[in-house]
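Lab notebook, design round three. We kept the backbone fixed and only want residue identities now. Task for the bench partner: fill in a sequence for the structure below.
Input structure tokens:
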């Protein structure tokens, strides 16, 4: 029976792959069609009337008539929607909102999730991920067993209880198609618990039950919390690694942050080269991309899922009236900030993520960081992709493992040279911390020529400073900030010292 079920899913994925091939073959027509559908659907909303959607005929009209938006500019409209108002950013009443970690003046952002957006974007994205995985690994048997999902929680919105707010993963699980539910663990009430420490503990108890453990084929979740989950399982089971607990395990689906700083930890926890690592780009705002090749480190942009994409060149990031470009104009190897218009009522919305195209045939991307997460005090233009890569190379050379890190500038003063300060938490510390620091600085120079130029003979920048933090520091810090859970990630870089100084003060 299990083999039969897996074959049915495989048959469905084969059919869906032919549709994916169609948008790969006609990417620009697909995106123009997505925009036309969105404009037509929202033409009679408050937003559609304000920006005269009925007169928009093409991409150029859309870019000319609708300014680039951020959360603060959409917040008044979203607030109305959360209190039950209809036809504001999207037709009808939107009753679900994904809660995202706030990077604006608010602690949290609330992103609208319409019924069609949940079904044709978020949930469809999970099916597309399985489609691409099964296409590359026809021997997959994920649906011949059970699969574990890490998720947040959701709750009603106190001012208007009909509105449901929560982590987007929780909204997806709560609305999971019935055909898929028998293949997932744990039960929905457990996975939607709000207390993360209790939830992980309870999930670990389920995960080590022999009748369930032998069936687990896949797990999905942010690397940080997946590793915490694995540690709980090993502590409760007394086993050395996860493959001693889940003997038939196949695939880890991950996203949210780069896997690079976590890869060695995960390989120790999952010690087999037969385990598939599959990356997805599933943000609160939408399910945008999925890994395309088995051993690739980039993702296929999903062009037919109710999202119209635009891209903001780096030269426009600080502009008061930024000019974005459509998919037709992107170039491989350049950094862009991502703009999305979605079937939930986001319009030319600046997510904050930055991406780089690795290919335009098909359109594949890497996430390179966040607009707010960079260091450029001295013109060095260091982004998260640089620091992740330098850290991975350094860990490999020193046989060490880093669990978390953050970095910030050291400002120049009369008696102090400028530089970068790193706070690093090790899973496995290097034999020599000074050697680790030296190699990290050298590797960052190899990756980023602007940083290398500023470091030349210590003329502009001194060698980076590095502090090894006690185990658990970052989790404690996130807990104190009220950002303890699946949708919250440690900020890697900051162009000011607020995070670094806050952590150092906590330790004092």
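Proposed sequence:
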């Amino acid at each position: 029976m299990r083999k039969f079920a897996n074959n049915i899913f495989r048959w469905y994925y084969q059919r869906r792959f032919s549709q994916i091939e169609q948008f790969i073959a006609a990417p620009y027509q697909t995106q123009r069609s997505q925009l036309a559908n969105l404009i037509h659907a929202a033409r009679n909303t408050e937003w559609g009337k304000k920006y005269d959607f009925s007169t928009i005929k093409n991409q150029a009209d859309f870019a000319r008539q609708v300014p680039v938006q951020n959360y603060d500019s959409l917040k008044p409209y979203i607030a109305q929607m959360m209190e039950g108002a209809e036809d504001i950013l999207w037709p009808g009443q939107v009753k679900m909102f994904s809660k995202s970690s706030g990077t604006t003046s608010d602690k949290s952002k609330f992103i609208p999730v319409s019924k069609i957006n949940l079904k044709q974007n978020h949930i469809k994205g999970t099916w597309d991920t399985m489609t691409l995985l099964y296409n590359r690994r026809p021997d997959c048997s994920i649906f011949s067993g059970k699969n574990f999902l890490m998720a947040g929680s959701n709750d009603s919105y106190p001012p208007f209880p009909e509105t449901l707010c929560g982590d987007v993963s929780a909204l997806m699980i709560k609305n999971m198609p019935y055909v898929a539910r028998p293949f997932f663990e744990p039960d929905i009430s457990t996975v939607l618990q709000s207390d993360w420490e209790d939830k992980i503990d309870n999930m670990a108890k389920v995960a080590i039950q022999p009748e369930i453990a032998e069936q687990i084929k896949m797990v999905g979740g942010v690397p940080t919390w997946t590793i915490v989950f694995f540690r709980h399982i090993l502590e409760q089971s007394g086993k050395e690694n996860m493959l001693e607990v889940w003997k038939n395990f196949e695939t880890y689906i991950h996203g949210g942050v780069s896997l690079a700083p976590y890869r060695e930890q995960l390989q120790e926890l999952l010690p087999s080269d037969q385990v598939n690592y599959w990356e997805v780009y599933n943000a609160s705002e939408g399910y945008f991309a999925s890994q395309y090749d088995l051993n690739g480190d980039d993702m296929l942009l999903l062009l037919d899922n109710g999202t119209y994409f635009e891209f903001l060149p780096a030269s426009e990031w600080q502009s008061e009236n930024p000019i974005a470009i459509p998919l037709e104009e992107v170039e491989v190897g350049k950094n862009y900030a991502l703009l999305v218009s979605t079937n939930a009522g986001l319009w030319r919305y600046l997510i904050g993520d930055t991406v780089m195209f690795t290919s335009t045939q098909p359109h594949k991307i890497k996430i390179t960081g966040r607009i707010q997460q960079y260091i450029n005090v001295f013109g060095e233009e260091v982004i998260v992709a640089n620091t992740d890569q330098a850290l991975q190379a350094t860990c490999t050379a020193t046989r060490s493992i880093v669990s978390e890190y953050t970095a910030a500038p050291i400002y120049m003063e009369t008696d102090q040279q400028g530089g970068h300060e790193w706070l690093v938490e090790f899973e496995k510390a290097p034999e020599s911390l000074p050697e680790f620091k030296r190699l990290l600085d050298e590797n960052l120079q190899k990756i980023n020529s602007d940083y290398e130029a500023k470091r030349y003979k210590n003329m502009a920048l001194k060698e980076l400073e590095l502090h090894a933090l006690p185990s658990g520091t970052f989790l404690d810090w996130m807990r104190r900030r009220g950002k303890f859970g699946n949708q919250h990630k440690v900020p890697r870089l900051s162009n000011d010292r607020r995070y670094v100084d806050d952590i150092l003060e906590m330790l004092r």
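Keep this in mind before ordering anything: The radius of gyration is 23 Å.
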